[in-house]
Amino acid sequence: MYGSTAFLRTFRLAFLTCGLASGAASGAWAQTLDQALASAYDANPSLNSQRAATRAVDEYVPIALSGYRPQIFGSASIGSQWVEGRYDAGIGSVTSHYKTDPSSFGITISQTIYDGLKTANSVRGAEAQVKGQRELLRNTEQTVLLDAATAYMNVLEDGALLELRRQNLTAFEEELKSARQRFAVGEITRTDVAQAEASVADAKSTLAEATANLKTADAVFVRVTQLQPQQLSPARPVDGLLPASLDAALASGLTRHPAIRAAQYAMDQSATEVKVAEAALSPTLSLNGSATNQYNYYSDGDRIERGTDVAATLNLSVPIYQGGAEYSSIRQSKEKLTQARIDIDTERDQVRASVQQYWSGLQAAKAAIESAQASVAANEIALKGVREEWRVGQRTTLDVLNAQTSLFEARASLVTAQRDRVVASFSLLSSVGELSAGRLKLKVRAYNPKVHYDQVRDAWIGVRTPGGQ
What we know:
It is built from 13 helices and six strands. The chain is of the alpha+beta class. The strands form two sheets. It has a four-stranded antiparallel beta sheet with strand order 1-4-5-6, with no helix packed on it. Strands 2-3 form a two-stranded antiparallel sheet.
């Protein structure tokens, strides 16, 4: 296995050249991968948005719990009343007119006693939804941290490739200068000079492309981490956090990956939704109470200055037929439960494929590093020999240019392989469900979704969030 010490030593070119290519500030201070990951954990908009979504989902539990609590309503009224009455007084019909200003106020209380276990199942479903949302948050954290690590390594890679292209252009310009001098004294032909000129022109074009690639990588880095790339330090792969074997990686991914766990909680929620829908066919029993005070009103022709009504009733409602919508809802919820079960298998298949993909990618990256190292060493020797032979007329200018190009490609392959190894290690850690700020031991204040949940779960009143909004 390619050790981390050797890894950092061979990747030092990327570290040094990236600082030059990305316009780093002067000084010994440099950004590290851990700092970039910590900034992404704290400031990434997508992750903070998912945290807000998790807090919003927490409120489904107190909403469901409200079914256990009484409902209290107050009422009040005021107005004018005109009463006209006709009656037989023995001497003929007599008409009387009355005018008063009635008013009233009262209170009504309703407490559900039995609702077919609708409330109990709604609470269980809401709690499953909260747990599933926490897993989605953990999955988003994994995605953001992986994006941050990838963006960091892309800046390192593109910075190193830019510097290599600059070095390559300088080498070609030196070859062009030497070719023109030798052409001036008749040692080579005009064709040799033209070949060197073509190589310089091509190197300038690829240098401009590399500059654009680095700017793009910088922009992605800023978007993901909310940091400006400064002088980036070399980064180690996270091999020490990875499972020892492919079987262990698969076992961890299939049991720990947040996407699978979120799908399992979604199935639990769907199961409770079936029971909630079936509750529409159940009788409901409620206890209702009311108290009302009335002033200045007429009853049976008599004016009453003040009256009080108090009532308590036990109400039983038995559904017989409600139009059929309740049966459709039950069938629909059962189909959603079937879908949720299938979704678990889908997530498992995706995780299994991802683990195998990134495990193979990590092994391939390690092999590519060893191959690229050998290629760089061999091409350096070859270029040195070709140049010596060119000076004595045994090689053409094209041979030198080709050897220089081969050395550049070998060095570029080494830089890319180093980048791929780091990214593959983070990708594998993510695919087994273990990529988190805690696992990486980042110096951040860990976000605990349970804190907000505990603050709002049993809240009976209040419109301000625990955050003060």
